[in-house]
Design brief:
- The protein is of the alpha/beta class and 335 residues long.
- Helix content is 35%, strand content 17%.
- The protein has a single domain, classed as Spore Coat Polysaccharide Biosynthesis Protein SpsA, Chain A (Alpha-Beta Complex).
- The protein contains ten helices and twelve strands.
- Strands 3-2-1-4-10-8-11-9-6-7 form a ten-stranded mixed sheet, sandwiched between helices.
- Helix 1 links the parallel strand 1 and strand 2.
- The longest helix has 23 residues.
Amino acid sequence: MQTSLIITTINKPNKNIKLFSKKSKKNKWDFIVIGDRKTPKNFKIKYGSYFNLNNQKKLSFQFAKKCPENNYARKNIGYLISIRNQSDIIVETDDDNSPKNNFFAKKSLKHSVSEIKNRSWINIYDLFLKKKDFIWPRGLPLEQINRNKIVLRKKILRNFYLQQGVCERNPDVDAIYRLLNKNINILFKKNLKVSLGNSLSTFNSQNTIWFKSVFPLLYLPVTCTMRCSDIWRSLVALAILRNDNKKILFFGTTMHQERNYHNLIDDFEQEIPMYLNNQNIFNVLSKMRFKKGIKNYLVNLKLAYKALVKGNFVSRLEIKYLDLWINDFNLINKN
């Protein structure tokens, strides 16, 4: 199956980007890099397709012409390019994640794994830690940090259309954790795979595998902060998938993070809406009457964001950007 790897960057090609390029060529993956206003003008890679702002605006996608600059949601353009190129699998990550060799292993839709029995919020990192530590993933509602013990069912064989890898060493945690813990070096279990089942967890865009059936759920919201965008996407995707009895696979670990410089107070400020609203957002989404079936995912996506607008979680402009992306998505699939 045709696989695409997508990143965004505002940096020059670092060792991770060069490795993504080299290994994508070796494994016959498409490699798509989406730039932004701050990306160096002389950005070049040996293998793959780099799209600067001018290249993006020349595309036939209306979303690419209207999406604000300096916005993580420009990654949505990469998804559209990949879908237009007839990808069957989209893998996404960031430029400060370092891939291990198994990152480029063949992606399987079907897995036989244990499934989490809980039906509440869980701290997914608890399962993957090599030794006990008090650490939680970015997006876990703060009121849920004093975690419930995870209970596992027997193994099941299931298709997982959405799969999330945990990144070790400097994993995806929130600014509160980083402000309290200056030196972060977390090791996760390498070959563990588990179904989220009917439990609740956010997921991020650091090491995420999307199969074609769930491509409509790729959309990253534009009108929230960068630190909320992939997390709020995960809440929307989780609600729609749960409605369709589809589960999310979590696995460890095919990459580690060598984090770019961040101003932690800026990160904290960007994450405040997440701290305040994640529980409320999921409460809203869990009460919605979504339609069943993959063919209704785009309809459900719009219903979800209309509810987020009504709840004042995102701007009314979000529907404008979402409509553009949906129209582009539909035109690609019509042609």
